[in-house]
Automatic annotation (TrEMBL):
Active site annotation, chain numbering: Y145, Y155
Gene Ontology molecular function: any one: enoyl-[acyl-carrier-protein] reductase (NADH) activity
Enzyme class: oxidoreductase
Similarity field: Belongs to the short-chain dehydrogenases/reductases (SDR) family. FabI subfamily.
Keyword terms of this UniProt record: Fatty acid biosynthesis, Fatty acid metabolism, Lipid biosynthesis, Lipid metabolism, NAD, Oxidoreductase
Pathway annotation: Lipid metabolism; fatty acid biosynthesis
Keyword Oxidoreductase attributed: yes
Organism: Acuticoccus sediminis
Pfam families the UniProt entry points to: adh_short_C2 (PF13561)
GO biological process: fatty acid biosynthetic process
Lineage of the species this protein comes from: Bacteria, Pseudomonadati, Pseudomonadota, Alphaproteobacteria, Hyphomicrobiales
EC number assigned by the record: 1.3.1.9
InterPro entries linked: Enoyl-ACP_Rdtase_NADH (IPR014358), NAD(P)-bd_dom_sf (IPR036291), SDR_fam (IPR002347)
The name this protein goes by in its record: Enoyl-[acyl-carrier-protein] reductase [NADH]
SUPFAM superfamilies for this protein: NAD(P)-binding Rossmann-fold domains
Length: 263
């Protein structure tokens, strides 16, 4: 019996087979979970449908978090399909790539607001709806990045949104704890995905972190998937409000290795 046997829930944020949400979906499916998937719009839908078939998804719903009616429809579908749910994964982020370069100070009000709504507030709005379906308790997860707590070149407004997202994790964990609903985040190291490529010079950051993390490599979406299975299963039943780093240990390092500096 898999770790997630008998558990049912929603994963939001698969765009293609490189998505972190896809790594999570595959692991949860392999561990016996029943999963409902979403796609942002028709363009993504074409790529997500064959992936949904692969994991025998219980449903595949269009959901754009800028359109609250589509978020409502998603959780109505989950409720109609299962009655209650056990887990929810939010792996959604967006910012104008023209502002994921240069100075943070140049962020426009329009992009700041849109980035915050899609990358941060959408978790709160979805979590509220997911929690209402977690009548037997449950576990939620969102995805963040270390640019929330330390300055990463070009990450800019996305770092500010991730800081707010991490704070939301703690507030939601406090809100829902009495109902046995846990809320956590994985802070993943850099992964080559569509969203990851939106940050200017992402390749340089990727290579730098690979070189300077204790494990001397980056992480795979399968590794993030396996950590998510821990946080979404009963193995982490005493854990809530946590930001769990899955980044080859990069976040503990304060300077390059001495060999590097001597060279
Ligand atoms: P990805 O491009 O595969 O996934 C991002 C998803 O966000 C896509 O499925 C996209 O459709 C969805 N999305 C964007 N705007 C949306 C909207 N308005 N409504 C609904 N969905 C919307 O990239 P990814 O790297 O797998 O990103 C998943 C999460 O992981 C994001 O929160 C990202 O910030 C986070 N993350 C990524 C990295 C990395 O290096 N790639 C590192 C740490 C955290």
């Amino acid at each position: 019996m898999g770790l997630m046997a008998g558990k049912r829930g929603v994963v939001m944020g698969v765009a293609n087979n490189h998505s972190i949400a896809w790594g999570i979906t595959q692991t949860l499916a392999a561990e016996g979970a029943e999963i409902g998937l979403t796609y942002q719009n028709d363009q993504f839908g074409r790529r997500v449908r064959p992936l949904a078939d692969k994991v025998e998804a219980a449903f595949l719903e269009q959901c754009d978090v800028e359109d609250l009616a589509s978020v409502d429809r998603l959780f109505e579908t989950a409720g109609r399909t299962w009655g209650s749910i056990d887990f929810f994964v939010h792996a959604v982020a967006f910012s104008d790539k023209n502002e994921l370069k240069g100075l943070y100070a140049d962020t426009t009000r329009e992009n700041f607001t849109r980035t915050m709504v899609i990358s941060c507030f959408s978790f709160t709005e979805s979590a509220k709806r997911a929690a209402a379906l977690m009548t037997n308790g449950g576990s939620m997860l969102t995805l963040t990045y270390g640019g929330s707590v330390k300055v990463m070149p070009n990450y800019n407004v996305m770092g500010v949104a991730k800081a707010a997202l991490e704070s939301s994790v703690r507030y939601l964990a406090a809100d829902f704890g009495s109902g046995g609903v846990r809320v956590n985040a994985i802070s993943a190291g850099p992964v080559r995905t569509l969203a990851g490529a939106g940050v200017t010079d992402a390749r340089l950051m990727f290579n730098y972190q690979r070189k300077h993390s204790p494990l001397e490599r980056t992480v795979t979406i399968d590794e993030i998937g396996r950590s998510s299975a821990y946080l979404l299963s009963d193995y982490s039943s005493g854990v809530t409000g946590e930001i769990h780093y899955v980044d080859s240990g990069y976040n503990i390092v304060s300077m390059p290795k001495l060999d590097e500096l001597r060279a």
